[in-house]
Amino acid sequence: MPNRLQSSNSDGAPGTRPTQPVATAITALSELSGARLEWVGQPGSQSSEVVVKGVDLRAQGIVSDDLFAALPGARTHGAQFAVDALGRGATAILTDEAGLELIEAADKAPDRSVPVLVHPNPRDVLGEISAEIYGRPSEKMQVVGITGTSGKTTTSYLLEAAIAGAGRKPGLVGTIETRIDGRRVPSALTTPEAPQLHALFAVMAEQGIDTVVMEVSSHALALGRVDGIRFDIGAFTNLSQDHLDFHRDFEEYFQAKARLFDPESTVRAEHAVVCVDDVWGRRMAELAATDESDAVTTVSTSTAEAEWKVGAVQVAEDGSQTFELVGPDGQSWPVSLRLPGRYNVANAALALTVSFAAGLDPDAAVRALGTVDVPGRVQRIDRGQSFLAVVDYAHKPAALEAVIATLRNQVPGRVAVVVGAGGDRDAGKRTLMGEAGARGADLLIVTDDNPRTEDPAKIRASVMRGAVDVPESERGEVREVGDRALAIEQAVRWAQPGDVVLVAGKGHEVGQEIDGVKHPFDDREVLGEMIGRFAINTAHGGKQ
Ligand SMILES: CC(=O)N[C@H]1[C@@H](OP(=O)(O)OP(=O)(O)OC[C@H]2O[C@@H](n3ccc(=O)[nH]c3=O)[C@H](O)[C@@H]2O)O[C@H](CO)[C@@H](O)[C@@H]1O[C@H](C)C(=O)N[C@@H](C)C(=O)N[C@H](CCC(=O)O)C(=O)O
Ligand SMILES: Nc1ncnc2c1ncn2[C@@H]1O[C@H](COP(=O)(O)OP(=O)(O)OP(=O)(O)O)[C@@H](O)[C@H]1O
Ligand SMILES: N[C@H](CCC[C@H](N)C(=O)O)C(=O)O
C-alpha cells in the first residue's frame, strides 16, 4: 500500500503532500458538502470514526487514508477505478449515483465496510472538500491568480521574480512547472485539479511560502479546479480565440474567465487587476467593479483609459526594451525588460501593477523584472549563426501574429516560420493560424505539433487551407512538411544572414504526442542541432 508522501523527497525536492496531515471525519465532510453518506462492502463494520488525511481524483495517486473522488468524466467514470483506489489505501469515496452503482456492481467488493459520499455533482463540492481536508492552506498566504488567453505563464514568471526580489518566499503554479521557493515540482496541467492544488498549498504553507502566483486556465474555472481557494488578487491579460472545442463560444469562454472577477462568483478574487487593452478586458473591469474603491485596478499599453499606463517604449537591437509605467498619482517607474515584443510590455506592466497591489516593494519588483527569461517564450537559440533563431509557444492565432510582428521588427532580413496545430484541440483556430503564418512570414512551413489522437495530415490540411487562401500577393512562400525535424531543417537551410527562423507552438515542451505516446522532441534542441549541422560557419554569413 503506498505510503503517505512527504513534503520533501530524499533529494530535498519538495513533495506533493504535506508532512503533517490533519485527520478529517467523513461525517464532517458529509455535513460540509451536503453529500449523502452510504456504505459499501462488508456489512456490519461501519464506523462513524472513519477519517481521511488527503484526497485525490486519480486512483493511481491515492495513498493511505485518502478520500478517492470518483468523478464522472468524458472518457470514463472514476468509479471504475475504485477497487484500485481502495487497494492503495483509500478509506472513503466521493462519487455520484452512477458511481455508487458501479462500485456496488463491481466483481470485487471491498473486504471492509467503506463510506461513500454521494453527491449529484461531486465536482461541485470537491474544491471545498479538498480545502477542508488540507486545512484551508490558501488562506495562510497571499494568492494571485492570473487568467487570460495569452501571457499567463510569462506574467507569472515576471511576478514570481518580483515576489522573490522583494524579499518574500514565492510559490508558482503553472504550465511549465510548479515551483516552491524556486524548487521544481512537475506539473501536468496548467492549473491542477482541486485535490492536487490544495495539497500543494499545504506543502507550500509548511515550507513557509507567503505569496503564490498561479495560472488559472478557463478549463480550471469551468471545472471547479480552483474552488475552495481564497484569491487575494485576480489578474486578467487578454482574450482571443482558443479552446472553442471545450467552450461552446466566445461568450462562454469569457464567462469561464469571469468567475475569477464576478462579484457573484464563489472564487472571485478580493482585488482585480485588469489589462484593458482589449474589449474583453474593459468588460471584465466593469464586471469586477463594486462599491469598494480598490476592487479593480486597470492597466493599459494602448490608448484605453486606465489607472496605470505605459509611456514610450525603447527597443534595443537585441529586442530588450525599456518603458515608463505611469501610475494614477503621476508616480512613474522606469522598467527594463529582457523579453522582446510589445505584448511583453503588456505582460510586464500587468505583473508590476499586480506586485504594487500585493504590497511588494516597488523598487525591488521593478529591478527583478529586468532579469527574467521564460523557457520556450521567444527563447533565442544561439550557436554563433548569423541569423536569429527563436523558439516560442505561440499556438493560437493572436499569439502567432504577435510574435511574428515582434520578430519582423527585430531583424533587417526575412522571416521563416515553422508551425503546426495540436490535435484534439480547438479545430477552428487551425485555418486562422495558417493565415497568420502566411501573412506574417516570407516562408511558412506547416508541420505537425502534437497530433494526439488525430490524423496529422488532416490537421495540416486545415492549417494549409488557411495559409493558401491568403492571396499570393499578400503572403510568403508556403510549404507543407509533416516531419517537424525536417521542417526545422528546411527553415535553417533557407535562412541567410539577418533573417529570423521562428519555430512556434511547442515552446518548453519536451515531447511530441502521437496516438497516446509521447516521443522525445524539444524544439530548442532540434533547432540547435540543425543550426550546428547546416548553418555553421555563418559568423561571416556563409553556409556549409
Ligand atoms: C477537458 C478536461 O480538462 N478534462 C479533464 C477531466 O477529464 P474528464 O472529466 O473527462 O475525466 P476522464 O478522463 O473521463 O476520467 C474520469 C475520472 O476517472 C479518473 N481516472 C481516469 C483514468 C484512470 O486511469 N484513473 C482515474 O482515476 C480521472 O481522474 C477522472 O476523475 O479531468 C481529468 C482528470 O483530472 C483530466 O485529466 C482532463 O484533462 C485533460 C487530460 C486535458 O487535456 N485537459 C486540458 C485541455 C486542460 O485542462 N488544459 C488547461 C490549459 C488550457 C490552456 O490555457 O492552454 C489546463 O489547465 O491544463
Ligand atoms: N500578452 C500577450 N498577448 C498576445 N500574445 C502573447 C502575450 N503574451 C504571450 N503571448 C504569446 O503567447 C505565447 C504563450 O505565452 P504564455 O505562455 O505566457 O501564455 P499562456 O497564457 O500561459 O499560454 P497557454 O495558456 O497556452 O499556456 C507566447 O509564446 C507568445 O507567443
Ligand atoms: N495548454 C494548451 C497547450 C497547447 C500546446 C500545443 N503545442 C498543442 O499541443 O496544441 C492546450 O492543452 O491546449
TrEMBL record:
UDP-N-acetyl-alpha-D-muramoyl-L-alanyl-D-glutamate binds at L57, T190, T191, S217, R225. Meso-2,6-diaminopimelate binds at R425, D449, N450, P451, R452, G505, E509. Its main location: cytoplasm. Residues 146-354 form the Mur ligase central domain. NCBIfam families: murE (TIGR01085), PRK00139.1-2 (NF001124), PRK00139.1-4 (NF001126). Catalyzes the addition of meso-diaminopimelic acid to the nucleotide precursor UDP-N-acetylmuramoyl-L-alanyl-D-glutamate (UMAG) in the biosynthesis of bacterial cell-wall peptidoglycan. This is UDP-N-acetylmuramoyl-L-alanyl-D-glutamate--2,6-diaminopimelate ligase. It comes from Rhodococcus baikonurensis. The lineage of its organism: Bacteria, Bacillati, Actinomycetota, Actinomycetes, Mycobacteriales.
